[in-house]
Amino acid sequence: MLARPEQTEVRADSQAERLERRFSDLVDTCSRFSQDIVRDAGWNSASVGLFDPITTNVEIARTVFGKWSLDILTLLHMRQSAGFQEIRRGLGRISSRVLSSKLTRMQETGLIRRDVKPTRPPRVAYSLTDHGQTVAKLGEPVFLYLRLSGAFSVQAEPSP
Fold first, then answer.
1. 3-state secondary structure 20-85
2. Mean per-residue pLDDT, 32-61
3. Closest CA to 75 of 57, 87, 93
């Protein structure tokens, strides 16, 4: 027997409400987690004043979410490991110079590792460090929330 349209709407609303509650619970949990970490690290208003959290957070955001960085992080998260040219092809219109600069910066921050393979000629493979994997996994619920909330819809990029 088919459900009446109004029953289907009630189920959809109920499911949307359930998802919204779960994400709200996640936000509360993450907030408490952050507060606990700050407390456990021994930070207080005086020690936090030793560094500018806004400047630090902006620098972190530029490194992790800046142009091409998130693309590189996502590609390596999905593929596990990739060579320089494979990353370049996977990203499309990035120049070799910019890619090299981004990979170096991400390596310096501990997000990715660069492994030189002992072959002739030598091959280089890039992969996420444990730190990079953690960042990628922490981002998954954020992107899932944005997709499910309807805030963003995925659109195909225009062809060149």
1. HHHHHHHHHHHHHHHHHHHHHCCCCHHHHCCCCHHHHHHHHHHHHHCCCHHHHHHHHHHHCEECHH
2. 72
3. 87
* Domain locations in the chain as residue ranges: 1-50, 52-149
Q: List, for residues 92-110, the tens digit of each pLDDT value.
A: 889 999 999 999 999 998 9
- 124: which strand partners? 116
CATH number of 52-149: 1.10.10.10
CA pair distance 57, 11, nearest whole angstrom: 40
111, 126 Cβ separation under 8 angstroms: no
Task: Flag whether the pTM goes above 0.70.
Answer: no
- pLDDT of 11 > 80? The answer is no
